[in-house]
Amino acid sequence: MALMIYNTLTRQTAPFEPLKPGEVSIYVCGPTVYADSHIGHAMSALVFDVVRRYFEWSGYRVRHVMNFTDVDDKIIRRANEQGRDPMELADSYATTFLEQLAALNILPATAYPRVSTTMPQIVAFIEGLIVKEAAYPAPNGDVYFSVRGDADYGKLSRRDIDDMRSGSRIAPGEDKDDPLDFALWKAAKPGEPAWDSPWGKGRPGWHIECSAMSLHELDAQIDIHGGGNDLIFPHHENEIAQTESLTGQSFAQVWMHNGMLQLAGEKMSKSLGNLVTIEEFLQHHSADVLRMLVLTSSYRAPLTYTADVVADTERKIERLMSALRPATGGLAEGAAADSLSVVVAKTRAAFRVAMDDDFNSAAALATLFELVRAINTSRDAGLSGATFEAGQATLRELAAVLGLRLEGAPVSQTAAAPFIELLIELRADLRLAKQWALADSVRNKLAALGVTLEDGPNGTTYEVKKLTNQAE
Ligand SMILES: [Zn+2]
Predict the structure, then answer these.
(1) 235 CA from centroid of ligand 1 (Å)
(2) Cis status, amide bond into 198, omega within 30 of 0
(3) Which of these, 53, 364, 373, 404, could form a disulfide with 354 (CB 3.0-4.6 Å)?
């Protein structure tokens, strides 16, 4: 079965066919770096990280570009407030964001272009649009895109140009022919960073950067353009207008948009002041928790962030990790092995079916939970050895396709494991010798360290709680 993806442009789900066999090009709009990033920014990066991981696991080579907007009104305003250089301020927030993406187990993009380092390509792009008469320089040094000259403007957001016209007017200081026209280049204002251009000193408008970067880093045509659904209009609409007017070709084959992360029913945003920064989140939870939160519902739907949802997500991670506890029994084959093998094969197939359905991560997770149940049942039945380990390896492999680290789970491979096992043996000996008080003391002291013992028909197993702390 083919991979089906929902395309905002067509409002339909269709089989994905890459432009070049075996290769996928993805451009995802990144943040404007002027403050601490919040978990809403991470959501888009997480969604497209899963998309990318699934393509790579399916054998594609992925070229993945994410930009940093480092020239922008908000950056300049904040830098002026703090008496800092705007480029230095943007650079420090971009550096922090990259560190946080790594902490969230988000694979590094192929390229992270910034406005400040793409200026020649941006200027050349605008020059090309002027040559094609899709854009015009204004007497004040601004350059505008001529919306009325673009016959299919509005096709992504399905807006009618005449409807838009009735609600818009030319703002003071704008030197454009039509209220719908948008700035490609803004003439320099005092106290702002500015770059040389054929139209005098100035800086780019916001939308042009992504068109220029995508063309420069990828190709005229790309497979997937992604971002939050708050970017559909005007940002992505304008990107399409710019790129297609310059190249004469359709820009992205598929437009993918993720839903917004909401806190108390509202979009998380700096301007609303209702945000949880990535730093705050990671102080209290593991990266897997945020990822699991995103994976649990459709990437296209809004995601509500509450303490209850986070607690529920923590339990789901623990459940997944319960399957990674070592085996204690001595059975290597038999009915338990056969039934686990069947579930492993079914899980692999069902996982792919789920992900092929527009990256249905919630359904993919459901298949992993079935595998967890089968692994734990087989352990209780005394299974160990190759089949048991293959079950755990499949769980790890598929969880990794979703970007889950399940860290702390391989307690059997950590430095503490032999000592925990030694104490379990010692406790068993104490119990045999009817030294109950000492045996209980071993158990209680291990519990105080976060290691819980569980006595079963095939001996004692253990679980390490506070796994994230342990990994740190
Ligand atoms: Zn963009």
Answers:
(1) 6
(2) no
(3) 364
Q: CA 18 to CA 2: how far, in whole Å?
A: 12
Alpha carbon of 448 to ligand 1 centroid (Å): 50
Name the fold adopted by 4-135+149-155+207-284. Answer: Rossmann fold (3.40.50)
- Summarised one tens digit per residue, pLDDT across range 37-85 is 989 889 999 999 999 999 999 999 999 999 999 999 999 999 999 999 9
CATH number of 311-406: 1.20.120.640
Q: Is the peptide bond before 234 cis (omega within 30 degrees of 0)?
A: yes
SS3 label, residue 155: coil
| pTM given for the model | 0.85
Taking only the tens place, the pLDDT of each residue in 6-36 is 999 999 999 999 999 999 999 999 999 999 9
Neighbours of 384 (CB within 10 A): 19
Residue 164 Cα, ligand 1 centroid: separation in angstroms? 21
Cβ atoms of 458 and 446 closer than 8 Å: no
Tokens of 388: 């048991």
Please tell me the distance between residue 313's alpha carbon and the centre of ligand 1 in angstroms: 31
> What is each CA distance from 442 to 171, 436, 448, in whole angstroms?
75, 10, 10
CA of 29 relative to ligand 1 center, distance in Å: 4
As a whole number of angstroms, the distance between CA 337 and CA 131 comes to 70
Please give the angle made by the CA atoms of 462, 463 and 468, to the nearest 5 degrees. 150
Q: How far is the CA of 228 from the centre of ligand 1 (A)?
A: 10
> What sign has the CA pseudo-torsion 347, 349, 352, 358?
negative
Distance 72 CA to ligand 1 centre (A): 13
